[in-house]
Amino acid sequence: MAEIQGFYDDLFTAVPEALAALLDAGDAGASAAVFVDGEPVVDIWGGCADADRTVPWRRDTITGVWSVTKTMTALCALVLADRGDLDMDAPVARYWPEFAAAGKGGVLVRHLLAHTAGLPDWDGPVEELYDWPSATARLAAQAPRWEPGTAAGYHSLTQGFLVGEVVRRITGRSVGGFLADEVAGPLGADFHIGLSAEHDHRVASSVPPPSRDEDYLASAPGKTAAPTAGTGIRVRDGNSVAWRRAQIPAASGFGNARSVALVQSVMACGGAVRGVRLLSQAGRDRAWEEQFRGEDRVLGMPMCYGLGYGLFGSTYGWGGWGGSLVMIEPDTRTVVAYVTNQMREPGDDNRGLEVGMAAYDGVKALRAGH
């Protein structure tokens, strides 16, 4: 059985067992965390940080979490809305005048967060993703694919630039800078959008699925091919220095299960964690207001979106290409995070859910006072 490092409460032995089983099944490395009331009851890791299986995954290992990054970018926008600096019902063009081009004057801020803005496609070269002014100018000039607010289509790469530019116009800071100063910093969370060179030695590279190589193309849940028209992102892109340094706030965040669970505990615990209040209760609740329910035009499956989070009954969260996942349960003030560098084929990947289910009985027992 794979060796698991870290600690866990005795009520949660099923979680390290689940993680060990995934590593035994061939995964390179991963971390898992369960936070209740903003404190860890599980904080574990195991396996290797590299494809050759020579570098052990350590306590401070971080890796790209792909679209789990969207929950961090959304939190930045929610903080600004709670402060009164951002109106979710305002036209995007109020903050970013150039965005009104090509019939987008009626796109509202909340449409960006709910994947209903009609701009799901990145049609520029991969290199342009690394250049913020070029990427945002391209999106500002683009016409929407449908009437904004009337349909949803997963904005896999574009959402971060759209929300991020609004954040930048309001604060004068990049999303990564705002996250560091106002969210991750105050919480002491090791999560980064725009990773500086000092952290490179800690990064676990993404490992493509068995029988694939680093040219393996990004795809989304329910899809076996790239989910949108235009540029495909490959594993080698995500492993590049350019990707790490860039701010691609829908996809280029780096962290581990501990840091993801700590930050998103703000959402599980009514807006405050460890004495740090980032949101009012009402500001937190705003995220769960249903913005869209129905067939997602890009994913080709039924979805329900709040403001920056997927809504799954009383559980909220999102997953990333490659398997990382965060699940938030406000009813039990619980967050489960699973972060891995090992990709699997999208249609064959329930690892994060398995870890989440393994935590379920422990949370129930904890809430029942053992």
The CATH superfamily is: DD-peptidase/beta-lactamase superfamily
According to DSSP, the number of beta strands is 15
Q: Looking at CATH, which topology would you report?
A: Beta-lactamase
Q: Within the largest sheet, what's the order of strands?
A: 1-3-2-15-14-13-12
By DSSP (H or I, 4+ residues per run), the number of helices equals 11
Which regions have little confidence, pLDDT < 50, spanning 5+ residues? 221-230
CATH architecture identity: 3-Layer(aba) Sandwich
| Rounded mean pLDDT score | 94
Number of spatially distinct domains: 1
Biggest sheet statistics:
7 strands, antiparallel
Helicity range: 25-40%
Return the CATH class: Alpha Beta
Q: Report the radius of gyration as a whole number of Å.
A: 19 Å
Structural class per helix/strand content?
Answer: alpha+beta
Beta-strand percentage range: 15-25%
String of helices and strands: EHEEEHHHHHEEHHEHEEHEEEEEEH
